[in-house]
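Sequence of threonine-phosphate decarboxylase (Vreelandella piezotolerans).
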Amino acid sequence: MTTAPWPDHGGDAAALLKRFRLPADHSFEDVSANLNPLGPPPWVADWLVECISGLSRYPEPSYRAARRAIAEHEGVAPEQVLLTNGGADAIFLAAALHAGQRGLIVTPTFGEYARACAAHRLVVTEHALEAPRFGLQTAALDEPVTQADVIFLCRPNNPTGTLVNAVEIERLLSCMPTTATLAVDEAFIDLALDAEPLTPLLARYPQLILLRSMTKFYTLPGLRLGYVLASAEHVAALACHQPPWSVNHLAAELVAPLLADTAFAQRTRQWLAREQPRLGQALTHAGLDVVPSQSCFYLVRPGPALCQRGLSSALLLERLLHHGMLARHTYSFAALDGDWLRLAVRDGSANDRLLKVLHDCVR
Ligand SMILES: Cc1ncc(COP(=O)(O)O)c(C=O)c1O
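Predicted 3D structure, token representation.
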């Protein structure tokens, strides 16, 4: 058994290969990254080449055209949109707005809320959701929300895939002081089947800000692109914390054509409607505990029968990697402590390969 530390980032394949004493050139498929397997849309590469000449100029500083395209797509006013350098930038801006104040993070969740709060010296309280279903009982938050200046909630949540419905969100908002912020990170909302939109709540609750990413749905994490939807006042306050020209020319120019590609969006929804439930059922059938997910990934762990035969999540991760599948460990998620693994939903044949390997690993 090796004592090398678990890498902080779950997708750090080199560190995991080293930990399990596998050669650096060991071949594997990545089932840890929760990105749309259909993207990026095929026209994007040529389109970027065509736009390259624009790199010799500064981008238009308020990103008017991109914000207008997002506003039309979301049914809000352009003043309610802030373009950001990925969803991660939006998270750090929300924390900056409440620097030195009190933060509340609903865990287990994406680690960047804690990092953003630490960077801006917030005093953080965590509200831990209970395994194995990780559902949020908002009544349990009635008291904590009155004592926080900013609350980070992920919808659907990474890594559990669970989704808080609009009624529950409204319930939280109605308990919050008007000076506080509810930052709902919806990086995966386009990859959530049947999610009710929260945008209609923006008009009634100035506390609400929605953090969005365009890197998951369009499979462009290297490009960096996201946005915030909020009241015009909130957007103006967040913009004060953003360095000028935060979003590069190529990313900003790509916003309108990406949103206009309805055929890609439809293909994605069809894939998700087919593969997401199919994979979930097959994982359960293989003997895993599977958290009911509403997005393109599943949080799983060996179920009771497999545990009895000595199979832990760490051992399953190791076996999967030996068999050429890199799953996401959960040592870096507060409150999970490695007890679970996250698996991405991929295209049909890739999911079949995972299921075949999984059967060999749990035998
Ligand atoms: C929940 C969540 N929010 C935000 C992000 C950041 O996404 P982006 O690539 O847009 O910065 C991630 C990335 O993994 C994420 O999981």
